[in-house]
From TrEMBL:
Compartments in which it is found: Nucleus
Residues of the Protein kinase domain: 1-227
Catalytic activity from the UniProt record: L-seryl-[protein] + ATP = O-phospho-L-seryl-[protein] + ADP + H(+); L-threonyl-[protein] + ATP = O-phospho-L-threonyl-[protein] + ADP + H(+)
InterPro entries, sorted: Bud32, Kinase-like_dom_sf, Prot_kinase_dom, Tyr_kinase_AS
Gene Ontology terms: biological process: positive regulation of cell growth; positive regulation of multicellular organism growth; positive regulation of TOR signaling; tRNA processing; tRNA threonylcarbamoyladenosine metabolic process
Phylogenetic lineage: Eukaryota, Metazoa, Ecdysozoa, Arthropoda, Hexapoda
Main location class: nucleus
Quaternary organization: Component of the EKC/KEOPS complex composed of at least GON7, TP53RK, TPRKB, OSGEP and LAGE3; the whole complex dimerizes.
Known role: Component of the EKC/KEOPS complex that is required for the formation of a threonylcarbamoyl group on adenosine at position 37 (t(6)A37) in tRNAs that read codons beginning with adenine. The complex is probably involved in the transfer of the threonylcarbamoyl moiety of threonylcarbamoyl-AMP (TC-AMP) to the N6 group of A37. TP53RK has ATPase activity in the context of the EKC/KEOPS complex and likely plays a supporting role to the catalytic subunit OSGEP. Atypical protein kinase that phosphorylates 'Ser-15' of p53/TP53 protein and may therefore participate in its activation.
GO molecular function: ATP binding; hydrolase activity; protein serine/threonine kinase activity
Keyword terms of this UniProt record: ATP-binding, Hydrolase, Kinase, Nucleotide-binding, Nucleus, Phosphoprotein, Serine/threonine-protein kinase, Transferase, tRNA processing
Protein name: non-specific serine/threonine protein kinase
Stated family: Belongs to the protein kinase superfamily. BUD32 family.
Source species: Drosophila grimshawi
Amino acid sequence: MALEIIKQGAEGRLYLGEYKGESCLIKERFVKKYRHPELDTQITRQRMKAEVKAAGRCLAAGILAPKILHSDLNTHKLYMEYFGSAQTAKHFIQQTVAKSGEEQAKQPLEELCRRIGGIIGQMHANNVIHGDLTTSNILINPTPNSSDGYDIIFIDFGLSHYNQATEDKGVDLYVLERALLSTHSEQPYLFEHILAAYRKTCGKDEAAVLAKFEEVRARGRKRTMIG
């Protein structure tokens, strides 16, 4: 079966392909020519292994992520579960606003953010640091028979790691806040609803994580002011 390319980014390509006769998504990482070949191979393999481990830890904790079907470290390809009907949270937010208008969109988007925040809290309670939290790395998968109407699936764990450090969890939140301000500047309320839900599920380190988040945020603002 010829591979059908469905997306190309800075880090790699996504193909629609097959694994053991079933449709799957194939993620292929590029060789980075600017790196020493041995270093590039090492970094690529580390990120592939991190993605496999983080997705597995999430699934074990009841957090939806793609099932990794096969990992080929030699060809730098991951074969994973494909969600054909899903769209990114980025597109979901943009489409909801476009269809309903800014005011009418608030209620469904606030509910979406509460669910996202609760899941990130679970992730951090299990010491999984995503590393690249953006609305492009969250899928909204329609589930017509469920009461909620959709599942939320976290993807792209290439920068993830397993760590109990409150600093890393604070940085994870800060990355998401900056991404929301950049991509969804017309909906400034999104992050506050994510954070409110996060507080309820992130576990015993809630106060320490949020204190670290405020520190990281202050450092970020200082860098912005200084340039």
